[in-house]
Automatic annotation (TrEMBL):
Organism name: Atlantisia rogersi
Subcellular location: Cytoplasm
Keywords noted in UniProt: Cytoplasm, Methyltransferase, S-adenosyl-L-methionine, Transferase
UniProt record similarity statement: Belongs to the class I-like SAM-binding methyltransferase superfamily. TPMT family.
Phylogenetic lineage: Eukaryota, Metazoa, Chordata, Craniata, Vertebrata
Protein name: thiopurine S-methyltransferase
InterPro entries: SAM-dependent_MTases_sf (IPR029063), Thiopurine_S-MeTrfase (IPR025835), TPMT (IPR008854)
GO biological process: methylation
EC number, UniProt record: 2.1.1.67
Chemical reaction(s) catalysed: S-adenosyl-L-methionine + a thiopurine = S-adenosyl-L-homocysteine + a thiopurine S-methylether
Cross-referenced Pfam families: TPMT (PF05724)
Cellular component annotations (GO), alphabetically ordered: cytoplasm
């Protein structure tokens, strides 16, 4: 479970913004992720009206799915373009407001109120700003975080979780010496030590 050369790799926020500008977003799944459908029951566990968090959300269509099921969705994403594309592609009206606790951050909220997307770095969030969540959909998030930041990412995620919450995590398995990522390879042993 050696992560090889990936351990020192850094993708900057500017690089992510550029990927969105260049439409270099091969990670986006137009049809949504089959693993969320498959494990939806594990995430919901029979509960309704949950607060679900989408870290590093991009324009994930699964946010619309869960909102349509009556849950309340919160996402965070550095690219404002991604968030605007999300609302536009689902024809959802939204309004924008500043986030007083985070300089330069904005919150884009669907007019219906059940989808709130923060445009800022996830490292700027805390439970005093976004509250705690009953469920997390982590796809393209832990695996997109720079390897050196995994510990702070995981610690933050733990502080955002309600006691009886469920966390669905999607990772990818491949030889980290053959591709530079992202998505990065996160060994199972590391996931265990990050989340306990
Ligand atoms: N989860 C989404 C997007 C995956 S790609 C999906 O499944 O489609 C990773 C996303 O994280 C990109 O959109 C990138 O712009 C965003 N991102 C990268 N670093 C971030 C950070 N520190 N805070 C918030 N968003 C970030």
């Amino acid at each position: 479970s050696d992560i090889g050369a990936q351990k020192d790799r850094v993708v900057t926020e500017e690089e992510w913004l550029r990927k969105w500008e260049m439409n270099n977003i091969g990670f986006h799944k137009e049809q949504g992720h089959p693993l969320l459908q498959k494990y939806l029951d594990v995430l919901l566990n029979g509960r309704s009206g949950l607060r679900i968090f989408f870290p590093l959300c991009g324009k994930a269509v699964e946010m619309k799915w869960l909102a349509d099921m009556g849950h309340s969705v919160v996402g965070v994403e550095v690219s404002e373009q991604a968030l605007k594309e999300f609302f536009a592609e689902h024809s959802l009206p939204y309004c924008e407001e500043p986030v007083p606790e985070i300089s330069g951050a904005k919150k884009l909220q669907s007019t219906s109120g059940n989808i709130s997307l923060y445009c800022c770095s996830i490292y700027d969030l805390s439970s005093s700003i976004v509250g705690k969540f009953d469920g997390v959909w982590d796809r393209g998030a832990l695996v997109a975080v720079n390897p050196r930041d995994r510990q702070s990412y995981a610690s933050l995620m733990i502080t955002l979780m309600e006691k009886n919450s469920s966390y669905l995590l999607v990772t990818v398995s491949y030889d980290p010496n053959k591709h530079k990522g992202p998505p990065f390879y996160v060994p199972e042993s590391e996931i265990k030590s990050l989340f306990g």
